Amino acid sequence: MITEINFDGIVGPSHNYAGLSLGNLASTRNLGKVSRPRDAALQGLAKMRANLERGLPQGFFLPQRRPDEGWLQQLGTTMADASAALRANAMSASSMWAANAATVSPAADTADGRCHLTVANLVTMPHRSHEWRETLAQLQLAFADHAHFAVHAPVPAPFGDEGAANHMRLCASHDAPGVEVFVYGEAGGPYPARQHREASEAIARIHGLDPARTIFARQSDAAIAAGAFHNDVVAVANERVLFTHELAFADREGFYAELREKLPEVEIVEVPASAVSLADAITSYLFNAQLVTLPSGEPALVLPGEAQENRPVWSWLQAHVAGNGPIRHLFVHDLRESMANGGGPACLRLRVVADPETVDPRFMATPEKLDRIEALVREHWPEEVAVEDLSNPALWRQVVAARAALCVELDLRELDREFF
Ligand code: SUG
């Protein structure tokens, strides 16, 4: 049966706060903080488990091999000789934010009737620019069934592509043809616009999308300047509901009109800036919630604890639910470790609309498998990592061994290798 599957990135053992992401205010604010990789991974696993219990199909991706010695080799160095800055870039656990792994067009939208995935190149940020090779390898394994999937290599540099974080899909139901919305930014503000229009257009062509059901919308400069480095920090869509901040898009009226023309049944739930400022939306990650359809057919939001702690945000949500708005349920999760690097519930997952039977079962979660992953995390993941530890060879060995143990546990030994 065609359904939406959420693939969450398991948080890797090298999770840390090196402040690598310019324009991501949480990452900058928490530079130098001591991270807790074990807690981070357990928080992510708890969210996966809860979504599974809610009746939502759940998959996962493995953390990538770190340190990425292959990447350093391409730069003519090694962990032993590299500068502290390059070491931090080689140690980042940023692949946990699976929303940036790829852009996904379900089979109902594409010319050849297969689900297409294009791996994101993430070229704007050095620490993320070397994720794509292993991401490609994992996607090629998980979606190896060529009758149902086509996995594409990234679009070439310099056209920046950040994957599903800048892509939304609206439809009557997941298995019906949808309208795909590509949200790009334009350079010129204080922070980089990571998603380039040229990359979005290339992906739409590669996936064989129908121009009559495709929209290219520009992200507002105000949103990028306020720290919404990805559109999924200010807007999220699911089936016929678009949940968005008033200031998310450059031409809000034009975008809404095009959306209503292409999908007349769309329901636009807009949060006005007078109720929730952009700053509150971004610190609370109100829109980085997972907007999901429960088995009952009701839409629900899976939110981070920070949304509950923010008075204007929580008041708005309570009033929406009480007033019979389209979103019927609110679920709150502690994802503090990921949030401190600017990664909320929606960043941690990649949505794939497909039949779970066509996915390599090694990437699908069950309660029992999550138990085994949890036990392994408790045994192998470091409790704490300070930024100075990124230069400690003992930590390098520990994170390599921890991930290798996970590959064995999940019968994915072929991923325990260098990707360059
Ligand atoms: O790319 N943070 C990630 C957060 C990604 C969030 N994803 C979505 N919104 N979909 C980023 O900025 C911080 C890493 C550091 O500072 O060490 C970081 O990469």
From TrEMBL:
InterPro entries: AstB_sf (IPR037031), SuccinylArg_d-Hdrlase_AstB (IPR007079). Its EC number is 3.5.3.23. Keywords: Arginine metabolism, Hydrolase. It catalyses: N(2)-succinyl-L-arginine + 2 H2O + 2 H(+) = N(2)-succinyl-L-ornithine + 2 NH4(+) + CO2. The keyword Protein biosynthesis does not apply. Pathway: Amino-acid degradation; L-arginine degradation via AST pathway; L-glutamate and succinate from L-arginine: step 2/5. Substrate binds at residues 18-27, 100, 127-128, 194, 232, 341. The keyword Hydrolase applies. The active site is at 162, 230, 347 (nucleophile). Homodimer. Belongs to the succinylarginine dihydrolase family. Catalyzes the hydrolysis of N(2)-succinylarginine into N(2)-succinylornithine, ammonia and CO(2). This is N-succinylarginine dihydrolase. It comes from Novosphingobium indicum.
